[in-house]
Amino acid sequence: MYRRQIKYLSQNESNITIRELLKKWLIPKKWQHFFRIQHDVLINETYHPFNTIVKNNDIITLNFNFPPRSENQTYLPGHHPVEVCYEDDDIIVVNKKAGIKSHPNLKTEDDSLMNDVETYLTPHAHPYMVHRIDMETSGLMLISKTPYLVPIFDQQLSSKTLHREYLAIVKLNQPISEMSGTIYDPIGLDPNDKRKRMVRPDGQIAITKYEVIKQNKKYALLRLNLLTGRTHQLRVHLSYKKWPIVNDLLYNPEPKNGNLLLFAHELNFITPFSDDIQTVEADLPDFMTDFITNEF
């Protein structure tokens, strides 16, 4: 059973009930029902009805005495060290290297980031995936140490309170006319290559914001924000604008010569059961800083 104790700090809010607080914390409705009928929410060690007002400095205990949604995530031990950028009792944020899969496709595989995090956390915890990034992309990934936080982070992803920012170096096959903007082109499957996606009118809504940090006649360094999370979204959108990411084997027609120059450098999320916004950043990898030094 997963158990959390939280000291409630009102921060000058108006009165809030237990029910309203659980909703604010993005706890799924089904779980709220379990908490109520099982009396598994306590205020100062005592159960109270859900319309009870929570007071400043109350100690709230949540007993997750029911099965999680993603209990069946299991991974074989991996073989590589992980670069930890943030860690607490429930969460770990790691910097994934380029060329490593986020997760295994088969239970028999042991060569992904999740396998390596399994080794890092064992025997005290196990990893539960919240989101993924492409194999060729490097950068920050948030991983939960308990399955009970995954649905909460899923809702943060949907509401964009879990926010990912990327840096990319693109080849300017066409000039960038505006220093910042938003790309709204829908993305669907590429009928000619099952590995790829493409912009197509019947695709899913896909929205990317971009900002030019620096550029010359050949290349640009872009800051990118995902407002949706389609497969290969950044790579497809930038290629469609004729700004393909350097060393993108699938979407850049030029030969690949090194790692994909796309890096998830910043991650923002709300620490579960609080109002605290956590920001985690990672420095650009050497292969990107070297390219900037040599080409800009």
TrEMBL record:
State the Gene Ontology terms under molecular function: catalytic activity, acting on RNA; pseudouridine synthase activity; RNA binding
Looking up InterPro entries in the UniProt record yields: PsdUridine_synth_cat_dom_sf, PsdUridine_synth_RluA-like_CS, PsdUridine_synth_RsuA/RluA, RluA_PseudoU_synthase
Residue ranges occupied by any Pseudouridine synthase RsuA/RluA-like domain in the UniProt entry: 90-239
A single BP term in Gene Ontology: enzyme-directed rRNA pseudouridine synthesis
Q: Which UniProt keywords apply?
A: Isomerase
CDD domains registered for this protein in UniProt: PseudoU_synth_RluA_like
Q: Which Pfam families does its entry note?
A: PseudoU_synth_2
* Family according to the record: Belongs to the pseudouridine synthase RluA family.
Q: What name has this protein been given in UniProt? A: RNA pseudouridylate synthase
